[in-house]
Design a protein that fits this description.
The protein is mainly alpha-helical. It has 7 helices and 3 strands.
Length: 149
């Protein structure tokens, strides 16, 4: 089907496909995350810490493409739940360093069910999911590289 870019049906808009796919994935993950007692944004914070170890709130925010002011309440709730700890950086008191606790590390391992569920529900082979992820990531990186200041 060839249509003028301004006359594309909604289902041919890449942004809508990605938006609605994100909603579908979040619906799939929600009962699993509810069972773990965390939200998807909290899962992302735990994932960043599991990936790179202790980090500042600003480094977590940068990795997730969010503002520090968005991360701080997530971190506080995760700390209250005993999943992570916060400490002031002795070298720079303005900076808060966040680390997983043993409970947080275990929670992150328990959350591997999200990936397994996505793979199962998608019906796609792992290598196809990896390829799709690489393509979407490349598009994101290109779009963010070209962001206006």
């Amino acid at each position: 089907m060839t249509a003028a870019p301004d006359n594309l049906p909604l289902d041919l808009h890449l942004c809508f496909a990605m938006y609605s796919t994100n909603i579908a994935i979040n619906r799939l993950y929600k009962p699993l995350l509810d069972g773990l007692g965390i939200t998807y944004p909290q899962y992302l914070v735990l994932s960043v810490l599991a990936e790179k170890g202790s980090q500042s709130v600003s480094a977590i925010a940068e990795r997730l493409s969010l503002e520090s002011s968005t991360i701080t309440p997530l971190v506080k709730r995760l700390e209250t739940a005993g999943l992570l700890q916060r400490q002031r950086n002795p070298a720079d008191e303005r900076q808060v360093i966040v680390s997983l606790t043993a409970k947080g590390t275990a929670m992150r391992k328990d959350a591997s069910c999200l990936t397994a569920t996505l793979l199962e529900q998608s019906g796609m082979p792992v290598d196809e999911i990896i390829r799709l992820n690489a393509e979407v990531t490349a598009l994101r990186d290109t779009l963010t590289k070209n962001d206006l200041p």
